[in-house]
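Lecture 7 notes: from sequence to structure.
We start with the chain below.
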Amino acid sequence: MKILLKNHLLIFLLTFCIGSSVNGQDIIRQVSCFDSTLKSQADSLKKELSAQGFIVVREAAMSMESGYEMPVIVPLTQGSWYHFAFIGDMSSQLYELRMFDYNEKQVVYQKHYGQGMESNIISFSYIPKFTEYHLIKPVQVNKKKKKDICGYIIMFKKVK
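Predicted structure tokens for the same chain:
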């Protein structure tokens, strides 16, 4: 009986230790942010593309760190016409976006420097050759090396 009790106690302690060490690990979670300028620019883009027959499929404001990519995975359907827009923080000096297909082949690359009106917007159309997931990696470099800068990404689909 003592051996059985010791075994149960040992199993309980091991389970507790393993469970607490798993819970103690840092988890990376996407955090939303709000920037009225980005929201205003996003609303203008949505209005303009809506007039061209596009609907918003997905959109998100996201907290980013200067110089670090923020991966976004999107499912795309073969032959459908998509339009993507990434809007970065106005105080950043560089905006870059790469898109990869399921086989990790780069299919889109755009780079803007933060000079002039709307230089913080990367916008492009894309028609996938296959129905598969694609990976979008926007990055922005901020002059002030801010830890928390806001970014906004929108995915449109042509319906008309």
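Points to note: Residues 37 and 83 are 21 Å apart (CA to CA). The first helix runs from residue 2 to 23.
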